[in-house]
Design goal:
α2 packs across α3 and α4 runs antiparallel to α5. This protein folds into 2 domains: about 120 residues, Quinohemoprotein amine dehydrogenase alpha subunit, domain 2 (Lipocalin, Beta Barrel); about 240 residues, Rossmann fold. The strands form 2 sheets. Strands 1, 2, 3, 4, 5, 6, 7, 8, 9 and 10 form a 10-stranded antiparallel β-sheet that branches. The chain has an 8-stranded mixed β-sheet with strand order 11-12-14-13-15-16-17-18, with helices on both faces. It is of the alpha+beta class. α3 links the parallel β15 and β16.
Length: about 425
């Protein structure tokens, strides 16, 4: 009898493990309670191409970008026990799957352990995005035997197409509240670039012009003719890529605090990130067997142009760092670039000509929010430095691109379309109305 009981126990243990393997995939929802605050989380779990589990977490109450997710570094399933490591937030999750596979009781640890019970989302209980858009996936490239697909949001509307492109780390959902305000006069879309949100994340294809080609591929697939492209932050890189190479494909470009060196490269000032990538490539050619037979011209270019230019970049960076508070320095250090961000930075290009109608809105000086120094003198120094750097870039953009109208909004947030929504709406509507 004892042997029979042991066998039955082993059977159910095997069944429990099989249940996990079959049923853990899908969306799970829960609320993280920290004191009086309650934060809703969505955990998406699926099998990778290699057969391993993978997961992403989305906090729909903490960010206006409801499409942004945090990827778990590892997901392990042993019987009914589920564990996740999430190093980007220095956290982990441990949960136990219920016998019926519909819930998971567990703990999310991020400094301190907090209870987080998850329930499987069903068509009736699944969280619904309140923004009035539809979503579809558009294939922009076939990499090997796999398609690269981008999430495209469509808020509807009539009239000229208006396409929003998000900044680095964001998805098209960052425009969920802003974009619908244009639908009375325009047909409004949003594109999430490769590597982010629900879009495909291939190992390659993050060079500036490749990202610009992704935008063009979406326009072709959806038969969007002569749109106005509006990009926030790094989205300015894609605007300049499309506008410089295919000016006939767009009616105009709108840079929302997006006209920085990756969008318009000022030869007289340079840019540390872009110049560093160029310098690294040139220095690598000095290794034996890696460069030209005669390295003389390369050495001459390094001595006369590249190295003096990079010294200028370093001195400018030094000036900026002198105005930064410990909190800002710590935030900058904590925001170390992951592989995806590094690939995008390494793929930046020097755009100097964009012959289309342009509206460029700059936040200058920026509102630093909670990272602003409480010391008035330090804060004044930071703002003066921002006026000097961002102001110089805005002036260079204005003088270097004759077709551009440049608008400066003082003490606006980098997400200028959120912090100064009325100002941005007004300027965009005037610009859009001026286009033929």
């Amino acid at each position: 009898m004892k042997t029979k009981l042991l066998w039955i126990g082993a059977f159910f243990a095997m069944f429990d493990g099989a249940l996990c393997a079959q049923d853990i995939a899908g969306d799970w929802q829960g609320a993280l309670k920290a004191g009086a605050q309650e934060l809703r989380l969505i955990v998406h779990i699926e099998k990778s191409d290699s057969g391993a589990w993978k997961a992403t977490l989305a906090s729909i109450d903490q960010s206006p970008d409801r499409g942004a997710t945090i990827a778990a570094d590892s997901v392990t399933v042993q019987g009914s026990n589920v564990k996740m490591a999430i190093t980007s937030i220095r956290g982990s999750y441990e949960g136990k799957l219920s016998a019926d596979g519909t819930s998971m009781a567990g703990t999310l640890t991020q400094g301190v352990p907090l209870p987080l019970d998850l329930k499987r989302a069903t068509p009736e209980t699944a969280w619904k995005d309140p923004s009035p858009h539809t979503a579809q996936f558009v294939t922009v490239e076939t990499a090997g035997d796999k398609d690269v697909k981008l999430e495209v949001l469509d808020w509807g509307g009539i009239g000229r197409p208006l396409v929003f492109l998000p900044g680095l780390g964001n998805t098209a959902h960052i425009f969920d509240q802003f974009a619908p305000q244009f639908t009375p006069q325009y047909h409004v879309y949003g594109i999430t670039r490769r590597g982010f949100g629900a879009s495909s994340a291939p190992a390659s294809g993050y060079e500036a012009d490749r990202l610009g080609d992704d935008v063009l591929a979406v326009l072709d697939a959806l038969k969007i003719a002569k749109p106005v492209l509006a990009g926030h932050s790094l989205g300015g890189e894609e605007l300049s890529s499309v506008g410089s190479r295919h000016p006939d494909r767009v009616a105009g470009l709108i840079y929302l605090d997006a006209g920085y060196a990756y969008a318009f490269y000022d030869q007289s000032k340079g840019d540390m990130n872009i110049d560093l990538v160029d310098l690294e490539k040139k220095l690598a050619q000095l290794h034996v067997g890696k460069g030209p037979v005669d390295p003389g011209p390369l050495i001459k270019e390094l001595l006369e142009t590249s190295l003096p230019g990079f010294e200028r970049d370093l001195r400018e960076q030094q000036k900026t760092m002198e105005t930064m508070t410990p909190a800002l320095l710590a935030a900058q250090a904590a925001a170390s670039a992951g592989a995806l961000t590094q690939a995008i930075m390494n793929g930046m290009q020097k755009y100097t000509t964009v012959p289309v109608p342009i509206l460029a809105i700059y936040a200058v000086p920026h509102d630093r929010g909670p990272l602003a120094s409480p010391d008035a003198a330090v804060r004044a120094a930071q703002e003066a430095r921002d006026e000097e750097t961002t102001g110089a870039q805005a002036k260079a953009f204005e003088s270097g691109l004759p077709s551009a109208k440049v608008v400066r909004i003082p003490h606006a947030d980098h997400y200028v379309f959120r912090s100064n929504e009325a100002d941005v709406l007004r300027e965009m509507n005037v610009f859009l109305g001026s286009l033929l």
